[in-house]
Design a protein that fits this description.
306 residues; mainly alpha; three-stranded antiparallel beta sheet; 9 strands; 9% strand
Length: 306
């Protein structure tokens, strides 16, 4: 946590790579920003997930899910604290240093000198203020300095991937990871998803989530699945659509999946149960406790209505 007494503001430092990376979903960026407002100069912070949820006006389950994603993808380190002397669970500590390290690598890459041009030297050091400390030595005009290049556009076929296509593809990949318990995050996995998005432009993230759920429940492959088992080509995707359609007709499934409208607690329960399958070991007990709590709330509401 940093406080500028002169300006009277509290702020957090977010590495640029976090804000510009297309591989990080918006929700994960928001949670990272909230963590950063509590980080000290070493990059460590210890806010409770309830505190973060209150800061973001979100549910605790939302914070739990996206902190888990940031840890799984290597942007944040979780430092378990175990339990206190009274046996109560102690709030985890988090370190933002993995993101800081990636930012240093980005800056070093941007300022890397060509073999024939040794005039500019930038030494990006760790420093006491995190990833933005740098020592710059300039021996030639500013206009000749190495400049940061814009992010390379991603292509699928001959067409550039639009921002909307990329955002939906990243969301679909995150949903696949959540349901399958995997950690895919490269452009190699995004490209086939973009291809299927273009073929079926009316499919939103919720529709893709239902399709993924149905196909994972009826696997035709062996071993750990990748998104290519659904999105690898048009034929596989059509096969998954047929699987999802067939699932609607199965007794016991259509009543749940085709419910016209879920209450907030019912939607939370659905997401918690899906998240539990991919939750880190240290999170499982808390997620199970959250599920029990939501189930109790739903039961209480049903009794009150009766």
């Amino acid at each position: 946590m940093r406080i500028d007494l002169a300006m009277g503001v509290q702020y957090g430092m977010v590495p640029k790579i976090v804000t510009v990376s297309p591989e990080i979903p918006r929700s994960a960026k928001v949670v990272f920003l909230a963590l950063a407002t509590y980080a000290d100069t070493t990059g460590e912070c210890r806010p409770s997930q309830s505190t973060l949820a209150a800061d973001l006006d979100a549910t605790r389950e939302f914070v739990t899910r996206w902190i888990g994603w940031l840890v799984d993808q290597g942007w944040v380190d979780r430092i378990p604290q175990g339990r206190g002397q009274d046996g109560r669970r102690v709030t985890n500590h988090y370190s933002l240093r993995p993101a800081w390290d990636r930012e240093r690598q980005r800056v070093l890459h941007v300022t890397q000198q060509s073999p024939g041009d040794r005039a500019v030297t930038r030494d990006v050091t760790q420093g006491s203020h995190g990833p933005c400390d740098s020592t710059v030595t300039e021996n030639r005009p500013e206009e000749n300095m190495t400049k940061e290049q814009p992010p390379r556009a991603m292509h699928v076929g001959r067409k550039v991937v639009t921002q909307a296509e990329r955002e939906l593809a990243v969301g679909v990949l995150a949903e696949f990871n959540r349901q399958a318990g995997t950690r895919y995050a490269s452009e190699e996995h995004l490209r086939p998803i973009v291809g299927r998005i273009r073929e079926h432009p009316k499919f939103d993230l919720e529709a893709h989530g239902r399709l993924i759920r149905a196909q994972l429940a009826d696997p035709w492959w062996k071993g750990t699945p990748g998104p290519q088992v659904i999105y690898g080509n048009a034929a596989l995707f059509e096969r998954s659509i047929e699987t999802a359609r067939a699932a609607k007709q199965r007794p016991g499934l259509s009543a749940v999946r085709e419910r016209p409208k879920l209450t907030r607690d019912e939607a939370t329960l659905r997401d918690l149960r899906a998240y539990l399958a991919a939750a880190p070991v240290e999170e499982r007990a808390q997620v199970e406790a959250d599920i029990s709590s939501v189930v109790a709330r739903i039961g209480g509401a049903a009794n009150a209505a009766a």
